[in-house]
Design goal:
With 234 residues, the chain is mainly alpha-helical. 82% of the residues lie in helices and 0% in strands. It is globular, with a radius of gyration of 21 Å. The two termini are 25 Å apart.
Length: 234
């Protein structure tokens, strides 16, 4: 039967594994959130009516709140990751310190972000929320900067390794394929980090990107996140 073919199709099983993960659901919501941010700006700039803009503005705000709630408690994961990276005896020193900085930056972001949840949800307003949210964005920016430095350094190292290979040798051919695979993954993360940097830098006033640019950049990084998580759950 056609129904059985659809229900038992491998793609359906893969999709269910993907949405069963918190990361998978978050990336989907994030994609819709940032696309709505871009599209609400686009409608505003092209003289869209308030009625046309309102649904996308609501998606941006409500999905943002949903994701904020889903992030509560996740700071512990990043504090632990920072401790593991700091204790590592095998990591390259630059990669190690960047990993610690990245994880502490993300942990700080999630800690400050969690403190603002009650205000964002309308449960208990606080005059300190705006300042705390700025600190959260500042921590996120620091984490992203460490991540981009680590990515650039890793790409440099891979380039140096590739230059020493003799692609006529069997072992070097295998090593070359490994390097290409690592380079593709790092490049993807590097682009994602650069896109994400538009969000906190705009929020704290370091850059002057408009909602359209930030929304588009956030959509690109979100789609990269969806793609990466989809591959992990394959």
């Amino acid at each position: 039967m056609v129904a059985d073919s659809l229900v038992y199709h491998p793609s359906v099983a893969h999709y269910l594994k993907f949405v069963a993960t918190t990361v998978g659901r978050d990336k989907l919501l994030r994609t819709l959130q940032y696309f709505s941010r871009f599209y609400a700006w686009y409608l505003f700039r092209t003289n869209g009516t308030p009625g046309q803009i309102a649904p996308f503005d609501a998606i941006k705000k409500q999905f943002g709140l949903a994701r904020k709630l889903m992030r509560v408690g996740k700071n512990v994961e990043h504090f632990k990751a920072a401790a593991i990276a700091a204790d590592s005896k095998t990591l390259d020193p630059v990669v190690k310190y960047c990993a610690v900085g990245r994880q502490l930056g993300y942990a700080g972001y999630l800690t400050f972000d969690a403190v603002t949840v009650l205000d964002a949800a309308g449960i208990r307003k606080s005059p300190a929320t705006q300042r705390l949210q700025r600190e959260a964005y500042r921590c996120w920016m620091i984490g992203l900067l460490f991540s981009t430095v680590s990515g650039a350094y890793s790409l440099y190292n891979l380039r140096q390794q590739a230059a020493k290979l003799d692609k006529k040798e069997g072992e070097d051919v295998v090593a070359s394929k490994r390097i290409e695979k690592e380079r593709a993954a790092i490049n993807l993360q590097f682009v994602s980090d650069l896109c994400d940097l538009t969000v906190p830098t705009s929020a704290i006033g370091l850059t002057n990107f408009d909602d359209g640019f930030v929304g588009l950049a956030g959509t690109v990084s979100s789609l990269i996140g969806v793609y990466t998580q989809w591959k992990k759950t394959a």
